[in-house]
Write a structure and sequence with these properties.
Blueprint: H1 2-19, E1 21-23, E2 26-28, H2 33-43, E3 46-52, E4 60-66, H3 68-71, E5 75-83, E6 89-97, H4 101-114, E7 118-122, E8 125-132, E9 135-142, E10 151-158, H5 162-185
Antiparallel strand pairs: 1-2, 3-4, 4-5, 5-6, 6-10, 7-8, 8-9, 9-10
Length: 188
C-alpha cells in the first residue's frame, strides 16, 4: 500500500512538473512570491513587491527594476511578474526599448523552439502567439516611433492558473463597484 501511495505522489509530481517550467530563469506555475523574492535577492536583482491587481493584495504583482536575464536582451522598458491567489507565479511580462534587434533575435529563437507563430495585429502593433504545453507565449512588437522608441514585449502565461485569477479579479471588481456605489449613493 505504501508503495502505491509513493508511486501516485511521485507520478503526480512528475505530471505537474511537465506542465510548468522555467522561462527566463523563473519557475512559471511553480515559484511562490517568497521564492521569487529570495531568488532575486540572491541574484542581485532589484524589484518592488508592494503592488497588486487594482491595489489589492489578493493578486500580488511584482515590478522588476533589474534582473540580468531580462537585461541581456536589451534595455528593459518595464517588467512585471503576476501571481495567482495561491501566490504562485503565473505571468511574466517584459517590454524592451528596441529598434528591432531584440525582436528579431526572440522571433527567430521562438520560431525555432516552438514552430511557426499565430500572427495577429494591425497598424503599428503585431503579436505572435506560441504554445508550450500549458503556457501561452506572446511576442509583441510596437513599431510606433523611431529607433529605441519602438518596443518589443514577451509575455508568458501559465494557463491553468487563469480560472482562479479571473475569479479573484471578478471578486475585486465587484468589491470596487460596491465601494464606489456606497461612496456616491447618497449624492445621486
Amino acid at each position: 500500500m505504501k508503495r502505491v501511495v509513493l508511486f501516485v505522489i511521485g507520478f503526480f509530481s512528475l505530471v505537474t512538473n511537465l506542465y510548468a517550467g522555467e522561462y527566463l530563469g523563473l519557475g512559471l506555475g511553480e515559484m511562490s512570491t517568497d521564492q521569487v523574492k529570495e531568488y532575486f535577492k540572491k541574484s542581485g536583482s532589484r524589484f518592488s513587491d508592494n503592488y497588486g491587481y487594482k491595489g489589492y493584495s489578493d493578486l500580488p504583482v511584482m515590478k522588476v527594476d533589474y534582473y540580468e536575464k531580462f537585461n541581456k536582451y536589451g534595455q528593459v522598458h518595464e517588467a512585471w511578474l503576476s501571481f495567482s491567489p495561491d501566490k504562485k507565479l503565473y505571468e511574466i511580462s517584459v517590454t524592451w526599448r528596441d529598434a528591432g534587434e531584440t525582436f528579431k533575435t526572440m522571433k527567430d529563437a521562438l520560431d525555432t523552439k516552438y514552430g511557426s507563430a499565430s500572427a495577429r495585429g494591425m497598424g503599428f502593433n503585431q503579436s505572435y502567439e506560441y504554445r508550450d504545453g500549458k503556457v501561452e507565449i506572446t511576442l509583441g512588437r510596437n513599431t510606433f516611433g523611431f529607433g529605441s522608441e519602438q518596443k518589443t514585449s514577451l509575455t508568458y502565461v501559465f494557463t491553468p492558473a487563469l480560472a482562479e485569477v479571473n475569479k479573484m479579479k471578478n471578486i475585486i471588481e465587484e468589491d470596487i463597484k460596491k465601494k464606489n456605489a456606497k461612496k456616491a449613493a447618497s449624492d445621486l
